[in-house]
Amino acid sequence: MIELRHAYLIFGKKNICTCMGIGAHQDDLEIMAIHGIITAYNNDKEGFVGIVAADGAGSARSGEYANITDEQMAVLRKAEQKEAARMGEYTCLAMLNYPSKEIKDPTQQGLQEDLYRLLIHFKPQTVYIHNLCDSHPTHIATAVKAIAAIRQMDKGLRPKKVYGMEVWRDLDWLPAGEKVVFDLSAHKDLQYSLIRVFRTQIAGGKAYDTGIMGRRQANATFSQSHAVDVATLVSYGMDLTVLIQNESADIAEFVSSKIKKFEAKALALLVKVL
Length: 274
Known about the structure:
Layout: E1 8-11, E2 19-23, H1 28-32, H2 34-40, E3 48-54, H3 70-88, E4 92-98, H4 100-104, H5 110-122, E5 126-130, H6 137-152, E6 161-165, E7 179-183, H7 188-196, H8 199-202, H9 208-222, E8 234-239, H10 241-245, H11 251-271
Parallel strand pairs: 2-3, 2-5, 3-4, 5-6
Antiparallel strand pairs: 1-4, 6-8, 7-8
Helix pairs in contact: 5-6, 7-9
């Protein structure tokens, strides 16, 4: 058994984990870890484990969900996440039920400890987390604690690759050599259906279904200015593997280096035409 603080786990029919997504909220996995989900979908040699850190209580709401309580919202969002895991054939779904306030508190280690236990149990080869330039503070905090948890692992057990993925900030600004391109052309209908599961968010005022699919199509179209489209849907990632290979690597300096490279590239193009 995996000893976790106040989580519950739902196991699917598969008994394999090659990739793992660690997201802050219900619906984040289906946005930022979709490459892992569709890689494992209907594939006996691949398995996806999804981890949701937050309890889902604090989301924005309007329309038919305008007057429900935080407690009611949390129940609804968990049910939606369970349905997405069923549809996507996840090996396991773990919902850790942390309040956002605790996730963002650097003195609280509960989430990091739970993530470590899950990582040790499943030993994924690839992990998808939030990118470190995301604009949502709970997303960034979840990513930082995921990195800390992986750094706790013996080096031989750590994932081979860790990617920071798009949700609340696109990564199209990363220079070509810094940006990881994920072809999502397969299973388009599944991708759309997974997003549509989260009715509390869509009917509640966030058009995630059209927005996310539109972003993926836009990424595919605008990824190369001097070439025809190769993929129909694309997501971008930031390769964070160096941060889990080297425990002494400074996370803030890593992010700063990406921004400086973007600045240098943008200015280099500009000065050519001034």
